[in-house]
Amino acid sequence: MHVPDGFIDAPVSVATGAVAAAAVAVSLRGARRELAGAAQGSGTGAERTAPLAGLVAAFIFAVQMLNFPVAAGTSGHLLGGALAAILVGPYTGVLCVSVVLLMQGVLFADGGLTALGVNITDMAIVTTVVAYALFRGLVKVLPRRRRSITVASFVAALVSVPAAAVAFTALYALGGTADVPIGKVFTAMVGVHVLIGIGEAAITALTVGAVIAVRPDLVYGARGLTAPLELRTSPLTAPAGEPAAVPAALADEPTAVPTAAAPRRSVRRVWLAGLAAAVVCAGGLSYYASASPDGLEKVAHDQGIDAKAKDHATKDSPLADYSVKDITDPRLAGGLAGIIGVGATLAAGTGVFLVLRRRRSAGPGEAAAPAAERPTPEQV
User: Mind telling me which Pfam families this protein's record contains (predicted)?
Assistant: First the structure.
Protein backbone atom coordinates (compact mmCIF):
# COMPACT_ATOMS: atom_id res chain seq x y z
CA MET A 1 0.00 0.00 0.00
CA HIS A 2 2.94 2.31 -0.58
CA VAL A 3 1.51 5.52 -2.05
CA PRO A 4 3.72 6.96 -4.81
CA ASP A 5 4.27 10.61 -5.65
CA GLY A 6 1.42 12.26 -7.54
CA PHE A 7 -1.55 10.36 -6.08
CA ILE A 8 -2.26 12.98 -3.40
CA ASP A 9 -2.01 16.74 -3.96
CA ALA A 10 0.50 19.01 -2.22
CA PRO A 11 -1.76 20.52 0.51
CA VAL A 12 -2.91 17.12 1.80
CA SER A 13 0.62 15.72 1.48
CA VAL A 14 1.94 18.60 3.61
CA ALA A 15 -0.87 18.15 6.15
CA THR A 16 -0.22 14.42 6.50
CA GLY A 17 3.48 15.19 6.77
CA ALA A 18 2.70 17.41 9.76
CA VAL A 19 0.49 14.69 11.27
CA ALA A 20 3.23 12.12 10.75
CA ALA A 21 5.88 14.38 12.30
CA ALA A 22 3.70 15.03 15.35
CA ALA A 23 2.92 11.33 15.74
CA VAL A 24 6.60 10.41 15.49
CA ALA A 25 7.46 13.06 18.10
CA VAL A 26 4.83 11.67 20.48
CA SER A 27 5.99 8.13 19.75
CA LEU A 28 9.58 9.04 20.59
CA ARG A 29 8.47 10.00 24.09
CA GLY A 30 6.19 6.99 24.45
CA ALA A 31 8.83 4.59 23.14
CA ARG A 32 11.22 5.66 25.90
CA ARG A 33 8.69 4.52 28.47
CA GLU A 34 7.93 1.29 26.61
CA LEU A 35 11.59 0.35 26.24
CA ALA A 36 12.28 1.19 29.88
CA GLY A 37 9.22 -0.80 30.96
CA ALA A 38 10.37 -3.79 28.93
CA ALA A 39 13.73 -3.72 30.67
CA GLN A 40 12.14 -3.56 34.12
CA GLY A 41 9.24 -5.91 33.55
CA SER A 42 10.93 -8.82 31.78
CA GLY A 43 14.40 -8.83 33.20
CA THR A 44 15.73 -7.78 29.82
CA GLY A 45 18.48 -5.22 30.22
CA ALA A 46 18.09 -1.72 28.91
CA GLU A 47 20.96 -2.30 26.52
CA ARG A 48 19.09 -5.27 25.00
CA THR A 49 15.60 -3.91 24.46
CA ALA A 50 16.74 -1.45 21.77
CA PRO A 51 18.33 -4.14 19.55
CA LEU A 52 15.13 -6.18 19.85
CA ALA A 53 13.05 -3.22 18.65
CA GLY A 54 15.49 -2.66 15.80
CA LEU A 55 15.17 -6.32 14.90
CA VAL A 56 11.38 -5.99 14.68
CA ALA A 57 11.82 -3.17 12.13
CA ALA A 58 14.26 -5.28 10.11
CA PHE A 59 11.94 -8.28 10.22
CA ILE A 60 8.99 -6.21 9.00
CA PHE A 61 11.11 -4.89 6.14
CA ALA A 62 12.05 -8.43 5.14
CA VAL A 63 8.53 -9.85 5.31
CA GLN A 64 7.14 -6.92 3.33
CA MET A 65 9.19 -8.22 0.40
CA LEU A 66 7.11 -11.40 0.37
CA ASN A 67 4.10 -10.42 -1.74
CA PHE A 68 1.46 -13.16 -1.67
CA PRO A 69 -1.37 -13.62 -4.20
CA VAL A 70 -4.84 -12.69 -2.98
CA ALA A 71 -6.93 -12.56 -6.17
CA ALA A 72 -6.55 -12.83 -9.92
CA GLY A 73 -3.70 -10.50 -10.85
CA THR A 74 -3.41 -8.94 -7.37
CA SER A 75 -1.00 -9.50 -4.50
CA GLY A 76 -0.59 -8.24 -0.97
CA HIS A 77 2.15 -7.87 1.60
CA LEU A 78 2.51 -7.33 5.32
CA LEU A 79 1.94 -3.81 6.60
CA GLY A 80 3.38 -4.64 10.01
CA GLY A 81 1.65 -2.16 12.30
CA ALA A 82 -0.18 -4.81 14.31
CA LEU A 83 2.88 -7.05 14.56
CA ALA A 84 5.14 -4.23 15.77
CA ALA A 85 2.62 -2.89 18.30
CA ILE A 86 2.03 -6.30 19.88
CA LEU A 87 5.71 -7.27 20.01
CA VAL A 88 7.28 -4.02 21.22
CA GLY A 89 4.42 -1.64 22.08
CA PRO A 90 2.29 0.84 20.10
CA TYR A 91 4.63 3.84 20.33
CA THR A 92 7.69 1.79 19.48
CA GLY A 93 5.64 0.09 16.78
CA VAL A 94 4.90 3.41 15.06
CA LEU A 95 8.62 4.14 15.01
CA CYS A 96 9.48 0.67 13.70
CA VAL A 97 7.15 0.96 10.71
CA SER A 98 8.21 4.57 10.11
CA VAL A 99 11.86 3.50 9.92
CA VAL A 100 10.91 0.78 7.43
CA LEU A 101 8.99 3.25 5.24
CA LEU A 102 11.88 5.73 5.34
CA MET A 103 14.39 3.06 4.28
CA GLN A 104 12.11 1.86 1.49
CA GLY A 105 11.48 5.36 0.17
CA VAL A 106 15.09 6.56 0.27
CA LEU A 107 17.00 3.41 -0.72
CA PHE A 108 14.55 1.36 -2.80
CA ALA A 109 12.32 3.97 -4.49
CA ASP A 110 9.27 2.33 -2.91
CA GLY A 111 6.70 4.89 -1.80
CA GLY A 112 7.01 8.51 -2.87
CA LEU A 113 9.22 10.93 -0.96
CA THR A 114 6.59 13.66 -1.10
CA ALA A 115 4.07 11.01 -0.02
CA LEU A 116 6.14 9.88 2.98
CA GLY A 117 3.76 11.65 5.36
CA VAL A 118 0.80 9.92 3.69
CA ASN A 119 2.47 6.52 4.00
CA ILE A 120 3.48 6.99 7.64
CA THR A 121 0.00 8.22 8.53
CA ASP A 122 -1.68 5.35 6.72
CA MET A 123 0.68 2.40 7.21
CA ALA A 124 2.34 3.24 10.53
CA ILE A 125 -0.13 5.29 12.56
CA VAL A 126 -3.54 3.99 11.48
CA THR A 127 -2.60 0.31 11.47
CA THR A 128 -0.81 0.51 14.82
CA VAL A 129 -3.50 2.50 16.63
CA VAL A 130 -6.40 0.42 15.29
CA ALA A 131 -4.66 -2.90 15.80
CA TYR A 132 -3.42 -2.25 19.32
CA ALA A 133 -6.70 -0.76 20.53
CA LEU A 134 -8.58 -3.82 19.27
CA PHE A 135 -5.90 -6.16 20.60
CA ARG A 136 -6.09 -4.69 24.13
CA GLY A 137 -9.88 -4.87 24.11
CA LEU A 138 -9.84 -8.54 23.10
CA VAL A 139 -7.16 -9.46 25.65
CA LYS A 140 -9.32 -8.02 28.43
CA VAL A 141 -12.31 -10.22 27.59
CA LEU A 142 -10.55 -13.41 26.49
CA PRO A 143 -9.20 -16.00 28.96
CA ARG A 144 -5.71 -15.21 30.27
CA ARG A 145 -3.92 -17.78 28.14
CA ARG A 146 -1.19 -17.69 25.54
CA ARG A 147 -3.66 -18.80 22.89
CA SER A 148 -5.75 -15.71 23.59
CA ILE A 149 -2.80 -13.48 22.68
CA THR A 150 -2.46 -15.27 19.36
CA VAL A 151 -6.19 -15.04 18.63
CA ALA A 152 -6.27 -11.36 19.54
CA SER A 153 -3.23 -10.78 17.31
CA PHE A 154 -4.98 -12.44 14.37
CA VAL A 155 -8.15 -10.37 14.70
CA ALA A 156 -6.31 -7.09 15.30
CA ALA A 157 -4.07 -7.56 12.27
CA LEU A 158 -7.01 -8.59 10.09
CA VAL A 159 -8.94 -5.41 10.89
CA SER A 160 -5.93 -3.08 10.66
CA VAL A 161 -5.45 -3.59 6.90
CA PRO A 162 -8.94 -2.57 5.67
CA ALA A 163 -8.75 0.26 8.24
CA ALA A 164 -5.68 1.53 6.40
CA ALA A 165 -7.59 1.18 3.11
CA VAL A 166 -10.41 3.30 4.54
CA ALA A 167 -7.87 5.90 5.70
CA PHE A 168 -6.32 6.06 2.23
CA THR A 169 -9.76 6.52 0.69
CA ALA A 170 -10.44 9.41 3.07
CA LEU A 171 -7.13 11.05 2.18
CA TYR A 172 -7.87 10.56 -1.51
CA ALA A 173 -11.28 12.14 -1.07
CA LEU A 174 -9.53 15.20 0.39
CA GLY A 175 -6.62 15.46 -2.01
CA GLY A 176 -6.82 12.97 -4.85
CA THR A 177 -5.27 14.24 -8.07
CA ALA A 178 -7.51 12.27 -10.45
CA ASP A 179 -11.25 12.69 -10.86
CA VAL A 180 -12.42 9.27 -9.68
CA PRO A 181 -15.71 8.55 -7.85
CA ILE A 182 -14.85 8.02 -4.19
CA GLY A 183 -17.48 5.30 -3.87
CA LYS A 184 -15.65 3.18 -6.43
CA VAL A 185 -12.31 3.81 -4.73
CA PHE A 186 -13.75 2.83 -1.34
CA THR A 187 -15.35 -0.37 -2.59
CA ALA A 188 -12.30 -1.50 -4.52
CA MET A 189 -9.77 -0.61 -1.79
CA VAL A 190 -11.65 -2.17 1.11
CA GLY A 191 -12.64 -5.25 -0.88
CA VAL A 192 -9.12 -6.24 -1.90
CA HIS A 193 -7.56 -5.24 1.42
CA VAL A 194 -9.92 -7.44 3.41
CA LEU A 195 -8.32 -10.33 1.52
CA ILE A 196 -4.85 -8.95 2.15
CA GLY A 197 -5.79 -8.60 5.81
CA ILE A 198 -6.21 -12.37 6.05
CA GLY A 199 -2.59 -12.84 5.00
CA GLU A 200 -1.50 -10.08 7.39
CA ALA A 201 -3.40 -11.77 10.21
CA ALA A 202 -1.84 -15.17 9.52
CA ILE A 203 1.71 -13.77 9.45
CA THR A 204 1.15 -11.71 12.58
CA ALA A 205 -0.44 -14.54 14.57
CA LEU A 206 2.24 -17.05 13.54
CA THR A 207 5.06 -14.67 14.45
CA VAL A 208 3.57 -13.61 17.79
CA GLY A 209 2.71 -17.23 18.62
CA ALA A 210 6.26 -18.35 17.83
CA VAL A 211 7.80 -15.73 20.11
CA ILE A 212 5.33 -16.44 22.91
CA ALA A 213 6.11 -20.15 22.70
CA VAL A 214 9.77 -19.57 23.54
CA ARG A 215 9.95 -16.18 25.30
CA PRO A 216 6.58 -14.72 26.33
CA ASP A 217 8.44 -12.16 28.43
CA LEU A 218 9.64 -10.48 25.23
CA VAL A 219 6.14 -9.84 23.88
CA TYR A 220 4.87 -6.43 24.97
CA GLY A 221 1.24 -7.41 24.50
CA ALA A 222 1.66 -10.50 26.69
CA ARG A 223 2.86 -8.68 29.79
CA GLY A 224 1.22 -10.04 32.88
CA LEU A 225 0.28 -13.27 31.12
CA THR A 226 2.79 -15.38 33.03
CA ALA A 227 2.97 -15.35 36.81
CA PRO A 228 6.20 -13.94 38.27
CA LEU A 229 8.46 -16.04 40.45
CA GLU A 230 7.02 -16.24 44.00
CA LEU A 231 8.97 -16.78 47.19
CA ARG A 232 6.89 -18.00 50.12
CA THR A 233 8.06 -16.98 53.59
CA SER A 234 6.66 -17.09 57.07
CA PRO A 235 5.30 -13.83 58.49
CA LEU A 236 7.55 -14.18 61.55
CA THR A 237 11.09 -15.36 61.84
CA ALA A 238 11.97 -17.52 64.85
CA PRO A 239 15.45 -18.08 66.30
CA ALA A 240 17.30 -21.10 65.02
CA GLY A 241 15.96 -24.32 66.51
CA GLU A 242 12.74 -22.78 67.79
CA PRO A 243 9.30 -22.90 66.18
CA ALA A 244 7.87 -19.62 64.93
CA ALA A 245 5.32 -18.12 67.27
CA VAL A 246 2.30 -17.00 65.27
CA PRO A 247 -0.19 -14.74 67.04
CA ALA A 248 -3.73 -16.01 67.22
CA ALA A 249 -4.91 -13.06 65.15
CA LEU A 250 -2.72 -14.23 62.27
CA ALA A 251 -3.31 -17.95 62.62
CA ASP A 252 -5.96 -18.02 59.91
CA GLU A 253 -4.32 -15.47 57.62
CA PRO A 254 -2.70 -16.64 54.36
CA THR A 255 1.06 -16.76 54.23
CA ALA A 256 2.64 -13.62 52.79
CA VAL A 257 3.86 -14.13 49.25
CA PRO A 258 6.31 -11.43 48.19
CA THR A 259 7.20 -11.40 44.55
CA ALA A 260 10.84 -11.89 43.62
CA ALA A 261 12.41 -10.04 40.76
CA ALA A 262 12.35 -11.91 37.47
CA PRO A 263 15.74 -13.41 36.58
CA ARG A 264 17.62 -11.91 33.68
CA ARG A 265 17.66 -14.12 30.61
CA SER A 266 19.77 -13.76 27.53
CA VAL A 267 18.01 -12.62 24.37
CA ARG A 268 20.92 -13.49 22.10
CA ARG A 269 19.33 -16.66 20.71
CA VAL A 270 16.02 -14.93 19.99
CA TRP A 271 17.83 -12.02 18.32
CA LEU A 272 19.95 -14.33 16.17
CA ALA A 273 16.93 -16.44 15.21
CA GLY A 274 14.95 -13.34 14.25
CA LEU A 275 17.83 -11.95 12.22
CA ALA A 276 18.30 -15.27 10.44
CA ALA A 277 14.59 -15.38 9.59
CA ALA A 278 14.74 -11.84 8.21
CA VAL A 279 17.79 -12.63 6.07
CA VAL A 280 16.18 -15.80 4.72
CA CYS A 281 12.97 -13.95 3.84
CA ALA A 282 14.65 -10.97 2.20
CA GLY A 283 17.63 -12.74 0.70
CA GLY A 284 16.03 -15.97 -0.46
CA LEU A 285 12.26 -16.30 -0.25
CA SER A 286 11.66 -12.87 -1.77
CA TYR A 287 12.70 -14.28 -5.16
CA TYR A 288 9.55 -16.42 -5.12
CA ALA A 289 7.20 -13.60 -4.09
CA SER A 290 4.25 -12.78 -6.31
CA ALA A 291 5.10 -10.37 -9.14
CA SER A 292 1.48 -9.17 -9.43
CA PRO A 293 0.75 -5.56 -8.41
CA ASP A 294 -0.30 -5.09 -4.81
CA GLY A 295 -3.76 -3.98 -3.77
CA LEU A 296 -3.23 -0.24 -4.15
CA GLU A 297 -1.39 -0.58 -7.46
CA LYS A 298 -4.15 -2.75 -8.89
CA VAL A 299 -6.94 -0.44 -7.74
CA ALA A 300 -5.03 2.62 -8.95
CA HIS A 301 -4.61 1.12 -12.41
CA ASP A 302 -8.18 -0.13 -12.69
CA GLN A 303 -9.82 3.05 -11.36
CA GLY A 304 -7.47 5.59 -12.92
CA ILE A 305 -6.04 6.87 -9.65
CA ASP A 306 -2.55 6.71 -11.15
CA ALA A 307 -3.36 9.15 -13.96
CA LYS A 308 -1.04 11.79 -12.49
CA ALA A 309 1.49 9.52 -10.82
CA LYS A 310 5.07 10.79 -10.88
CA ASP A 311 8.35 8.95 -11.17
CA HIS A 312 10.19 8.41 -7.92
CA ALA A 313 12.99 10.89 -7.22
CA THR A 314 15.44 8.03 -6.62
CA LYS A 315 14.24 5.72 -9.38
CA ASP A 316 17.82 5.38 -10.68
CA SER A 317 19.35 4.58 -7.28
CA PRO A 318 21.59 1.47 -7.03
CA LEU A 319 18.88 -0.41 -5.08
CA ALA A 320 15.73 0.80 -6.85
CA ASP A 321 12.96 -1.78 -7.13
CA TYR A 322 14.75 -4.05 -4.63
CA SER A 323 17.46 -5.06 -7.09
CA VAL A 324 21.16 -4.23 -7.05
CA LYS A 325 22.02 -2.28 -10.16
CA ASP A 326 24.42 -3.82 -12.70
CA ILE A 327 23.96 -7.39 -11.39
CA THR A 328 22.42 -9.38 -14.21
CA ASP A 329 21.32 -12.43 -12.21
CA PRO A 330 17.86 -11.46 -10.86
CA ARG A 331 18.02 -13.93 -7.99
CA LEU A 332 21.37 -12.57 -6.81
CA ALA A 333 20.44 -8.94 -7.45
CA GLY A 334 17.17 -9.19 -5.52
CA GLY A 335 18.59 -11.31 -2.70
CA LEU A 336 21.54 -9.01 -2.15
CA ALA A 337 19.30 -5.95 -2.18
CA GLY A 338 17.06 -7.59 0.41
CA ILE A 339 19.99 -8.40 2.69
CA ILE A 340 21.31 -4.85 2.36
CA GLY A 341 17.86 -3.56 3.25
CA VAL A 342 17.66 -5.77 6.33
CA GLY A 343 21.07 -4.56 7.46
CA ALA A 344 20.28 -0.89 6.83
CA THR A 345 16.92 -1.08 8.58
CA LEU A 346 18.39 -2.99 11.51
CA ALA A 347 21.17 -0.41 11.90
CA ALA A 348 18.82 2.58 11.59
CA GLY A 349 16.17 1.13 13.91
CA THR A 350 18.62 -0.04 16.54
CA GLY A 351 20.40 3.32 16.44
CA VAL A 352 17.18 5.23 17.04
CA PHE A 353 16.13 3.02 19.93
CA LEU A 354 19.59 3.02 21.53
CA VAL A 355 19.54 6.81 21.56
CA LEU A 356 16.08 6.74 23.14
CA ARG A 357 17.20 4.30 25.82
CA ARG A 358 20.32 6.31 26.67
CA ARG A 359 18.35 9.54 26.87
CA ARG A 360 15.87 7.81 29.15
CA SER A 361 18.66 6.49 31.37
CA ALA A 362 20.37 9.87 31.57
CA GLY A 363 17.23 11.97 31.72
CA PRO A 364 17.16 15.02 34.02
CA GLY A 365 16.02 14.32 37.53
CA GLU A 366 16.39 10.56 37.18
CA ALA A 367 18.66 8.86 39.65
CA ALA A 368 20.84 5.96 38.72
CA ALA A 369 19.68 2.52 39.75
CA PRO A 370 20.80 1.44 43.24
CA ALA A 371 23.73 -0.91 43.36
CA ALA A 372 21.49 -3.75 44.52
CA GLU A 373 19.38 -3.40 41.38
CA ARG A 374 22.26 -3.27 38.93
CA PRO A 375 23.01 -6.48 37.03
CA THR A 376 25.89 -8.55 38.22
CA PRO A 377 28.49 -9.97 35.81
CA GLU A 378 26.89 -13.38 36.25
CA GLN A 379 23.50 -12.01 35.13
CA VAL A 380 24.94 -10.52 31.97
Answer: CbiM, PDGLE
Q: In this structure, what DSSP letter does residue 358 have?
A: H
Contact present, 24 and 98 (Cβ < 8 Å): yes
Residues 6+ apart with CB under 8 A from 306: 4, 6, 7, 178, 297, 300
Residue 229 CA: distances (Å) to CA of 237, 258, 344: 22, 9, 39
Phi, psi of 8 (to 5 degrees): -115, 140
Q: Is the pLDDT of residue 235 over 70?
A: no
Closest residue by Cα to residue 81 from 95, 97, 92, 67:
97
**DSSP, res 7:** S
Whole-angstrom CA distances from 29 to 25, 116, 357 are 7, 21, 11
The single-letter code of the amino acid at 364 is P
Measured over the CA atoms of residue 325, residue 329, residue 334 and residue 336, the dihedral's sign is: negative
Residue 259, classed as helix, strand or coil, is: strand
Please report, for residues 20, 56, 146, the alpha-carbon distance to residue 313 in angstroms, rounded to integers and kept in the order given.
Answer: 20, 28, 46
Q: What angle do CA 249, 252, 257 make, to 5 degrees?
A: 105
Q: Average pLDDT for residues 81-96, to the nearest whole number?
A: 97
Q: CA angle at residue 33 from 30 to 36, to 5 degrees?
A: 145
Is the four-CA dihedral 285, 290, 295, 298 of positive or negative sign? positive
Q: Which fold has domain 10-222+264-360?
A: Arp2/3 complex 21 kDa subunit ARPC3 (1.10.1760)
Tell me which residue of 254, 323, 261 sits closest to 289, measured CA to CA.
Answer: 323
Give mean pLDDT, residues 46-70: 89
Alpha-helical segments (H) within the chain: 10-42, 46-64, 81-88, 90-107, 116-119, 127-141, 146-175, 182-214, 268-283, 295-303, 330-361
Degrees to nearest 5, angle at CA 166 with 302 and 135: 135
pLDDT digits (tens, 9 = 90+) for 164-215: 999 999 999 999 999 999 999 999 999 999 999 999 999 999 999 999 999 9
The letter for the amino acid at 372 is A
